Amino acid sequence: MEDTRAYGIPDIELAGQHGGTVNPSNFAGHDLIVLFCPPEPLTAASELASYNALADALAYNDAFMVAVCCAEAGLPASRILISADSERAWDAFGKCLDGTEHLRADQGGVLLYGRGGCLRKTWHGIGHAREVIQALGERM
Questions:
Q1: DSSP letters along 7-72, please?
Q2: Which domains, ranges and CATH numbers included, belong to the chain?
Q3: What is the pLDDT of residues 87-102, one digit of tens each?
């Protein structure tokens, strides 16, 4: 297996929502969205639902999403994997940022990695689902 840490996606096993584990580095050959939902359960569920509604665009772009979220948001789309392991995930992904993104765990945020595993773009806060999906189509 290729060492994806050189590309920016942390090689970390996160606890899955319904057991098992999720390792974001397994998706280095695809576009990968990492969504950090804010800790407030209703806001987190709403944010996850906005991406779930755009699941067809994930499939069309051969992209996957790892949502780090404590909310029970129903059954997500098949390309959306959920982990409640927010502290470990935030620590691992925060090390990939160069300090200019100003993401805060308590407010949520989105990281978009390209197919080679390089961090392409970040969004602070919530409400960016359509922008993120649009950015998927903008190949670099």
A1: GT-----EEBBTBSEE-GGGGTTSEEEEEE--SSHHHHHHHHHHHHTTHHHHHHTTEEEEEE--S-
A2: 4-136 (3.40.30.10)
A3: 888 888 876 665 555 6
CA distance 134 to 128: 10
| Weakest-pLDDT range from 65-69, 104-108, 113-117 | 104-108
Residues in CB range of 18: below 8 A, 6 or more apart: none
pTM: 0.85
Instruction: Tell me how far apart the alpha carbons of residues 122 and 94 are, in angstroms, rounded to a whole number.
Output: 12
Strand ordering across the sheet containing 119-124: 80-83, 63-68, 31-36, 109-113, 119-124
Q: In this structure, are residues 36 and 110 in contact, taking their beta carbons and an 8 Å threshold?
A: yes
The whole-angstrom separation of Cα 61 and Cα 120 is 15
